[in-house]
Amino acid sequence: MYKGRRIGAIIAAAGSGSRMGGDKPKQFLNVDGIPVIAKTYRAFADCDMIDVIYVVTGEDMMQQCKNHMVPYLDTKQLKKFGGIVSGGNERQDSVYNALIAVKEQGGVDYVLIHDAARPFVTGKIIETTVKAAESRDAAIVCVRPKDTIRTVDETLDRRSLMIVQTPQGFRFDLLMNAYEKAYADGYYGTDDASLVERIGVHPALVEGSYANIKLTTREDLPSVTRIGKGFDVHRLVEERKCIIGGVDIPNKKGLLGHSDADVLTHAIMDALLGAAALGDIGRIFPDSDEQFKNADSIKMLEQVGYMIREKGYGISNIDATVICERPKISPYVEEMIENIAKALKIDSDRINIKGTTTEKLGFTGRKEGIAAEAVCILNTL
Ligand SMILES: Nc1ccn([C@@H]2O[C@H](COP(=O)(O)OP(=O)(O)OP(=O)(O)O)[C@@H](O)[C@H]2O)c(=O)n1
Ligand SMILES: C[C@](O)(CO)[C@H](O)COP(=O)(O)O
Q: Quick check: CB of 166 below 6 Å from ligand 2?
C-alpha cells in the first residue's frame, strides 16, 4: 500500500529470449545463484509498497515458470503472488493479458509493469516509481546514454536522449485505456509509456540505474566464477604401471586401482566436477562398473571436460601437485600438461603441475602410495 492505494506489479516473462539463445528462455537462467524470474519477483515482493504481483508467461511455460520461481520464495514473498497469466505473441499482448486478469480480479489503483529480464532492479527504484506514478499518473525509469547516439543519417543531441528501462508505473485505469486505444488503432509499441503518450499523458522520468539492464544477449549475463578442489591417493604396488598425468613413468612400483589409477588425473577430475557441482569421479565412473577396469583416466578426463562445457563453463586454470618421494615428477611435467590440455581442449598455459615430497614423512614418505591434489577455477563462457 502507498497512501492507502492498492499497488500491483506485472512481471512480463512470456518472451522466448531468441537474442539470448540457449536451451531455455532467459527468465529461467540462473543469476546470482537463483533463476532470473525468482530474483525479479523477489525485488517486488520485498517492497512494502507492492500489494500483489502477477507474472505473465508463455502458455507452454506456466509450469516451468512456477518451478523456477516458487521454490526460491519465502512465505511472505509468496503471499503477494496474484497468479500466473498466459502471455501473447508480443510483449504488449502479454502485458495486456495480465492487465485484463488484474481487472477481472478486482483491479488495483496503480500498476507497475516490469520486464522479468531486468533482475537487478532495486527496492529504491521500485519505490521511486510508485511515488512518481501516484503523483503524476505515469512514470518511467530511465538513464542517460553514455555514448553518442545517431540515426543512420545524423548525430542526435545526447542531452535530450534517455534510455528507457522498466519498471513503468501508471494509474491502472489510465494504462487500461491506453492499451485499449492502441489495440483499436492497431498500434504496437515496444514499451508501455509509448501507449500512454498516445492518449496525451507524458510520464514522469524517474532516475534508473545502469545496473538495471535488460538481459538480452549473452554478453549481458554476469560472469560466474567457481572454484573446485580435488584430492586422491593410490597405493604403490609391484607389477602395476605408474601412470601419472597420462604419462607411463618408469618406476619400480606402480599405482593400484580399478582404473589405471592415474592419481593426478583423478584429483583434477574431482576438482573440475566439484567446481561445476557435478559430484565426483566415484559417481560418474563407479569402480563397481567393469567398463572402467584399467580404464585410461585421460579418456575419462576428456568426458569430464565435455560435461563441464555442456554445463556452460570454461576452465580458467588448474593447479595441481603430485606428492611422492619417487618417481621424480619434474622430468614428466611438460608431457603431463600436454596430455591434460589436449583432453580438456584448453591451452596448456592454463595448467600448472608440480611435484613435492613430504620429507620422508607419512605414507608418501615411506613410498607406500602417491597423493595428488588439484584446484581449478571455472568461469561461465
Ligand atoms: N511475447 C512476449 C515477449 C516478451 N515478453 C517479456 O518482455 C520482456 C522484455 O522483452 P525482450 O527482452 O524482448 O524478451 P524476449 O522477447 O524474450 O527476447 P527476444 O526478443 O530476444 O526473443 C522480457 O522479460 C520478456 O519475457 C513477454 O512477456 N511476452
Ligand atoms: C520495455 C523495455 O524494456 C524498455 O526498455 C523495452 O522496450 C523492451 O523491448 P524489447 O524489444 O521487448 O526488448
A: yes
Q: Ligand 1: which residues within 6 Å by Cβ?
A: 12-20, 25, 27, 56, 87-91, 94, 115-117, 214, 216
**Paired sense of beta strands 313-323 and 369-380, if any:** antiparallel
Look-up of cell digits 496525451: 200
Task: Say what the ipTM of the complex is.
Answer: 0.97
7-220 folds as Spore Coat Polysaccharide Biosynthesis Protein SpsA; Chain A (3.90.550)
Q: Which ligand sits nearest to residue 98's alpha carbon? A: 1
CB 155 within 8 A of CB 50: no
pLDDT tens sequence across 148-201: 999 999 999 999 999 999 999 999 999 999 999 999 999 999 999 999 999 999
Q: What are phi and psi of 178, to 5 degrees?
A: -60, -40
CATH of 225-380, one of 2.60.40.10, 3.40.190.10, 3.30.1330.50, 3.90.1150.10: 3.30.1330.50
Q: Is 191 in the pocket of ligand 2 (CB under 6 A)?
A: yes
Q: Residue 242 has what pLDDT? A: 98
Does pLDDT of 212 surpass 80? Answer: yes
User: What does the alpha-carbon distance between residue 242 and residue 152 come to, in Å, rounded to a whole number?
Assistant: 67
Instruction: Indicate the pTM of the whole model.
Output: 0.82
Q: What pLDDT does residue 121 have? A: 98
Q: Does residue 27's CB lie within 6 angstroms of at least one atom of ligand 2?
A: no
Ligand nearest to C-alpha 164: 2
